[in-house]
Backbone:
């Protein structure tokens, strides 16, 4: 495993990202300096708006991903190295990951609108926060797992050589996170695309606020009464084009670059050629000339600015004289006390508010919550089992075929990025209308397909990351000893991928709970289809413009808020029980039992 280079030039993508960042900032400023009147900031879908819609969606995705990356690295490493913080933060991350995204709508919109006003900027910030909630938790779990899987002797060697602080972060901790973080970034990016339609059509009271973007375009196209099929297919085609371009110009070069950070016991003879832009750069004279003559000066300027900022921050932050030990202990005690007091105040105030709302306004529909959670759990479990049935055989077949693995990753990233509103148009039309399964079973099958699309990619990309971390010399040793395929799977592959499988399972169930809001409550060409489940109940409770419930009368605002709080509270209890009793124990067992030691 190599140390992480500080020079952006060695990353081969730093100059691309630098140039893209400048263009992105200019585009955002150009779009936001023109305030748009009223709450409705979008018009019905038009073909000519698609390029601009794609640019706006990409801007929100990039902004949310940058926030998610900073959050995941800082929080993931902190909880991996601090056992006390781990006991508090890990359950919170489990809960946040598993709560459907619609439950974040009121808080995100309230914060954004109050801080930035009710204009375009406030809604843009709210949408970015919502996309962040669909990306960050999975990436934080990846960093946590990667740091926990660092061999103990490497940690001891770093301590014995006096490598601490920033040097340890740059040369040991961050490089160990690169492979897993990359593959989980891909699936988190896909999760952002998946949630885009919900994040770009915000609910402010009883009013819908669409923002310009591919998600809102697809949502408007699905409900359009004229040329719905053509508009929907065109929007899906543009979305697939954006996903494929990002795969070629961003994710493939990063995947090639991440191969240098694998743990190797010795120098392996297994080579991995460049793909996409990486191979294009290595073997092309014209791209190399463009990079060296145009983008390299920009890269040097960025490196110079980063070095100056880092030096100034180091002089400001690091004390010249170490503080006395009693003063340091008093500071740590005061810091802990303030943290516990703030946490206690938040819990007490939040609990009192929730109790007051639920006690006075809880509707009769709340008695459906236990049955709804049970039905939803069975659907997620079925989708998870069906996903494993194809993921494990396909990965075992593709692991020794680099071209097949690259094709699988590209195809998975493309399909994972399909937002539910696009898939809804296809699967509901297929199962309900064309195959004529009827509203009941047709919606169940369509919801199962949507649910699998929200579950399987977490497992797949985590297992791809686990396979990529298998040292090449161990694979060569198994081949030299003539082990059978079953023995290789039992002695090498299964122990190597189990930690990633359990991490993927944890995040997959979180993604499944999130996907329920789309798979159990489906709007299709003016018709509303639903099945009993917690996703349907939360959709009823969170949307003021939601179709009427069985009684024929929409829920009042107070009862809707009480139902939302009660449903989220019960869902949190179930998630915590499952995670603490099942998934976290399996994850800890696999991390300790199958750690690679030198």
Residues:
């Amino acid at each position: 495993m190599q140390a992480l280079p500080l020079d952006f030039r060695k990353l081969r993508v730093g100059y691309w990202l630098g140039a893209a960042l400048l263009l992105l900032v200019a585009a955002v400023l150009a779009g936001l300096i023109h305030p748009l009147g009223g709450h409705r900031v979008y018009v019905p879908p038009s073909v000519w708006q698609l390029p601009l819609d794609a640019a706006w969606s990409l801007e929100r995705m990039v902004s949310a991903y940058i926030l998610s990356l900073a959050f995941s690295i800082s929080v993931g490493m902190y909880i991996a190295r601090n056992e006390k913080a781990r006991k508090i933060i890990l359950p919170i991350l489990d809960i946040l990951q598993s709560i459907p995204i619609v439950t974040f709508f009121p808080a995100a919109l309230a914060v954004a609108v109050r801080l930035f006003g009710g204009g375009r900027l406030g809604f843009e910030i709210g949408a970015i926060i919502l996309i962040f909630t669909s990306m960050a938790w999975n990436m934080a779990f990846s960093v946590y797992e990667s740091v926990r899987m660092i061999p103990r002797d490497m940690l001891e060697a770093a301590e014995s050589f006096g490598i601490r602080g920033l040097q340890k972060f740059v040369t040991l901790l961050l490089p160990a996170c690169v492979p897993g973080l990359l593959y989980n970034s891909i699936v988190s990016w896909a999760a952002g695309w998946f949630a885009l339609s919900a994040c770009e059509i915000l609910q402010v009271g009883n009013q819908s606020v669409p923002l310009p973007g591919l998600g809102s375009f697809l949502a408007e196209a699905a409900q359009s009464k004229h040329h719905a099929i053509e508009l929907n297919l065109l929007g899906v085609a543009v979305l697939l084009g954006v996903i494929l371009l990002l795969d070629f110009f961003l994710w493939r070069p990063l995947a090639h670059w991440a191969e240098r950070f694998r743990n190797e016991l010795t120098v392996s003879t297994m080579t991995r050629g460049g793909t996409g832009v990486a191979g294009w750069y290595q073997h092309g004279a014209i791209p190399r000339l463009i990079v060296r003559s145009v983008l390299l000066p920009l890269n040097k300027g960025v490196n110079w600015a980063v070095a100056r900022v880092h030096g100034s921050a180091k002089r400001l932050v690091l004390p010249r004289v170490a503080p006395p030990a009693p003063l340091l202990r008093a500071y740590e005690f005061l810091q802990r006390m303030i943290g516990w007091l703030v946490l206690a105040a938040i819990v007490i105030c939040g609990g009192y508010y929730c109790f007051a709302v639920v006690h006075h306004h809880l509707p009769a529909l709340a008695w459906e919550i236990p049955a709804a959670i049970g039905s939803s759990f069975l659907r997620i479990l079925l989708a998870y089992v069906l996903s494993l049935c194809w993921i494990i055989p396909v990965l075992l077949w593709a692991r020794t075929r680099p071209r097949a693995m690259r094709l699988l990753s590209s195809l998975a990233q493309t399909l994972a990025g399909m937002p539910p509103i696009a898939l809804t148009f296809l699967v509901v039309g297929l199962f309900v209308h064309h195959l004529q399964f009827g509203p009941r079973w047709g919606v169940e099958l369509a919801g199962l397909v949507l649910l699998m699309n929200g579950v399987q990619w977490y497992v797949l990309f985590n297992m791809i990351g686990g396979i990529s971390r298998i040292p090449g010399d161990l694979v060569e040793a198994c081949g030299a000893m003539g082990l059978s395929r079953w023995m290789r799977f039992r002695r090498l592959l299964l122990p190597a991928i189990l930690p990633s499988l359990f991490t993927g399972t944890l995040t997959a169930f979180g993604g499944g709970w999130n996907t329920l809001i789309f798979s159990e409550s489906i709007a299709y060409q003016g018709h509303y289809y639903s099945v009993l489940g917690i996703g349907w109940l939360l959709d009823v409770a969170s949307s003021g413009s939601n179709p009427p419930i069985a009684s024929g009368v929409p829920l009042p605002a107070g009862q809707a808020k009480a139902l939302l709080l009660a449903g989220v509270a019960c869902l949190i209890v179930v998630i915590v029980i499952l995670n603490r009793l099942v998934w976290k124990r399996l994850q800890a067992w696999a991390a300790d039992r199958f750690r690679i030691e030198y």
